[in-house]
Design a protein that fits this description.
single chain; about 270 residues; alpha+beta; Jelly Rolls; 2 domains; 12-stranded antiparallel β-sheet; two-stranded antiparallel ribbon; 5 helices; globular; binds calcium ion
């Protein structure tokens, strides 16, 4: 029985036990951790495969994509504009936060890069000659979806990546993305893949995090690039059906149960 059904089943008030049950259910609804209602769905493309990217494109419907190719190398970028949404860009996880740096590499146009994945201009996790393990994205309005391609730019070490998104329902973390099945082959630099998420409550922030493949700690002396950043349309706050309306319904039902019980006692 879902919480909605549990609440609704108490609607016909039958005295104090039913009132208590309604209030308990309402309290339970209020206490539920956000993640229980998480609605973010992740999309993955391993290596240069477009499978996850194409599925994300179809699911989000419309989106704005940024390929950074026309932005000069060395530019420090702090925001992007995607329709009505301002996307704040940043770096975190290694002391004072920085802004991302636009980077053009022949590696992306050669052996490692594939057009529409990570190619030519991209954004690098470097600020003032310092690397950061997290590239952060914040949205001025909650958006339906977010996705990006990631390049593992370390030929002498092993790295994997995750996407962490926060929406109205909480914060959820993707599976670990790794394009090389064998650890030995990950001593390489190449397109790691696509990471995307879609949320029907609206994504408010997201970050891509680099992990040392062996220890799963966030290294602070290694680099990665992100390209073809994709941002879905803004969602209206009132279109968010989960979890506030359910919580509100629980409270209304709880009060309704109390009123019914008091009336019956007065009539008796
Ligand atoms: Ca590019
Ligand atoms: Ca590597
Ligand atoms: Ca890797």
């Amino acid at each position: 029985m879902s919480n909605v059904q549990r609440l609704l089943s108490c609607k016909g008030d039958r005295g104090p036990p039913a009132v208590a049950a309604v209030l308990l259910a309402a309290a339970f609804a209020l206490m539920l951790p956000g993640q229980a209602w998480a609605t973010s769905v992740f999309y993955y493309g391993v290596g240069s495969s477009n499978t996850g990217d194409d599925a994300w494109n179809a699911a989000v419907g419309s989106f704005t994509a940024f390929n950074f190719d026309a932005i000069p190398a060395g530019t420090n970028l702090s925001s992007l504009t995607a329709g009505s949404v301002t996307v704040g860009l940043g770096l975190a996880g290694n002391g004072t936060a920085g802004t991302v740096e636009v980077y053009h590499s022949t590696a992306f146009a050669g052996a490692g890069g594939v057009s529409d994945t990570v190619y030519d201009g991209a954004i690098l996790n470097r600020s003032a000659a310092k690397s950061y393990p997290r590239m952060t994205f914040t949205f001025s309005s909650p958006v339906k979806g977010f996705g990006a391609w990631v390049f593992d730019n370390n030929a002498a070490s092993r790295e994997s990546f995750e996407l962490v998104v926060t929406d109205a329902s909480g914060t959820v973390t993707s599976l670990v993305l790794e394009s090389h099945p064998s650890p030995e082959a990950d001593l390489n630099h190449s397109v790691e893949g696509f990471l995307g998420a879609i949320s029907n409550t609206g994504i408010t922030s997201a970050y891509i995090v680099m992990l040392d493949r062996d220890t799963l700690v966030e290294p602070t002396n290694r680099y990665f690039e992100v390209d073809n950043v994709k941002v879905g349309p803004a969602l209206q706050a009132q279109s968010d059906p989960i979890p506030e309306p359910l919580t509100a319904a629980g409270m209304v039902l709880g009060i309704g149960g109390l009123v019914t019980y008091v009336r019956k006692r007065r009539a008796a």
